[in-house]
């Protein structure tokens, strides 16, 4: 077939042809993972690859995992076995290394997707208004082996009602596939957990590094979503498209669920989000960030998320970057001059 014989339908990109990568990191959770995999296989959007990264599980769990993957017999599911335990964040990026999708979703092995998850999250990303490094949806909560407990995790709709925004946000979801865009200078925790997120691959590639914080074994979603948000903001889809499984063996989530205002973490959980935000920001700054980010936008993001002293620490080893940002300060010039480290005279 020559060039003149190719019809428009043959060359126009189609949403159903978009390959999505799903990465599942697994460590001794073989009693849960089959249900998670079945929720992947049941997706309405069929063009996906599912990369399971086993982080050196105990032999009994690895044997069971191999059997589950074998019995399912779906060629879209691939199992990667790490020879030693590297922690969840390293496992996510190992999965990324073995993947090909332009969009990457993360699924915890004790969570589930609704059948429409991939399709609606792709529609959110491919909206006609704005694109962002990460899209997030509302999430439900269920007791593993038991009942559904909640169809709300983030509480987005509750806040929209309180602010008299709900009709406008529902119209945006209907018309464009997303409810709200949060620019990167928006602070606070905006998301549910791992299984509510879909990233653009290019954003995760920027966040990849050779080593991560030693204490970040169960915080891969925090590292990835904060980093992606800092790179360009978050699209939020106010529809419950995934489920958070709770059980007594969960390392993070409390097995009690009774109020939108409760502390949902295990009592012994240590919140590393502030330290991770600093760490992932250093990753972005070390990545020759001005090749990828507009200086004025980066400046606005940094001054929104960090105090004067924190900025001084972040930019202490980034002298040239500090100079460049200062030249783009415009209306933020006074604040930036106070926040940036002293500029040493050229020798």
Describe the 3D structure:
Helix 2 (30-41) packs parallel to helix 3, helix 9 (220-232) crosses helix 10 (273-286) and helix 12 crosses helix 14 (333-339). This protein has helices at 8-11, 30-41, 59-72, 88-97, 117-125, 156-162, 166-176, 201-207, 220-232, 273-286, 295-305, 308-314, 319-327, 333-339; strands at residues 20-26, 48-54, 77-81, 103-106, 112-113, 134-143, 148-150, 180-182, 197-200, 234-246. Strands 1, 2, 3, 4, 5, 6, 7, 8, 9 and 10 form a ten-stranded mixed sheet that branches. 39% of the residues are buried. With 347 residues, it is an alpha/beta fold. The chain is built from 14 helices and ten strands. Helix 2 (30-41) links the parallel strand 1 and strand 2 (48-54).
> What letter string, H or E per element, gives the SSE order?
HEHEHEHEEHEEHHEEHHEHHHHH
What would you call the shape? globular
Span of the ends, CA to CA = 63 Å
Mean pLDDT: 91
List the helices and strands and how they pair.
Layout lengths: L7 H4 L8 E7 L3 H12 L6 E7 L4 H14 L4 E5 L6 H10 L5 E4 L5 E2 L3 H9 L8 E10 L4 E3 L5 H7 L3 H11 L3 E3 L14 E4 H7 L12 H13 L1 E13 L26 H14 L8 H11 L2 H7 L4 H9 L5 H7 L8
Parallel strand pairs: 1-2, 1-4, 2-3, 6-10
Antiparallel strand pairs: 4-9, 5-10, 6-7, 6-9, 8-10
Helix pairs in contact: 2-3, 9-10, 12-14
Short structural summary:
It contains 14 helices and ten strands.
List keywords for this structure.
347 residues; alpha/beta; ten-stranded mixed β-sheet; 17% strand
């Amino acid at each position: 077939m020559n060039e003149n014989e190719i019809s428009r339908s043959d060359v126009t990109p189609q949403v159903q042809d978009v390959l999505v990568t799903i990465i599942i990191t697994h460590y001794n959770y073989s009693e849960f993972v089959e249900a998670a995999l079945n929720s992947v296989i049941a997706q309405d959007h069929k063009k996906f690859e599912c990369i399971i990264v086993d982080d050196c599980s105990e032999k009994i769990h690895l044997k069971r995992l191999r059997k589950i993957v074998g019995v399912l017999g779906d060629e879209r599911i691939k199992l990667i076995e790490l020879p030693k335990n590297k922690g969840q964040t390293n496992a996510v990026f190992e999965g990324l290394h073995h993947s090909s999708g332009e969009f990457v979703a993360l699924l915890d092995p004790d969570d589930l997707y609704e059948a429409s998850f991939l399709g609606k999250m792709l529609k959110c990303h491919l909206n006609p208004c704005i694109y962002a490094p990460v899209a997030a949806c509302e999430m439900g909560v269920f007791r593993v082996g038991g009942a559904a407990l909640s169809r709300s995790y983030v509480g987005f709709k509750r806040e929209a009602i309180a602010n008299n925004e709900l009709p406008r946000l529902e119209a945006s979801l209907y018309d464009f596939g997303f409810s709200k865009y949060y620019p990167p200078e928006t602070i606070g925790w905006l998301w549910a957990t791992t299984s509510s997120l879909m990233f653009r691959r290019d954003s995760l590639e920027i966040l990849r590094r050779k080593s991560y914080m030693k204490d970040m074994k169960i915080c891969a979603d925090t590292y990835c979503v904060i980093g992606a948000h800092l790179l360009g903001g978050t699209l939020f889809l106010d529809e419950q498209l995934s489920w958070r499984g709770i059980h007594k063996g969960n390392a993070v989530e409390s097995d009690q669920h009774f109020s939108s205002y409760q502390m949902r973490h295990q009592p012994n959980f240590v919140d590393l989000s502030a330290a991770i935000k600093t760490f992932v920001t250093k990753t972005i700054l070390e990545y020759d960030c001005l090749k990828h980010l507009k200086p004025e936008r980066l400046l606005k993001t940094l001054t929104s998320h960090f105090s004067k002293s924190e900025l001084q620490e972040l930019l202490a080893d980034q002298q040239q970057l500090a100079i460049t940002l200062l030249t783009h300060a415009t209306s933020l010039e006074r604040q930036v001059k106070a926040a940036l480290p002293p500029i040493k005279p050229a020798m």
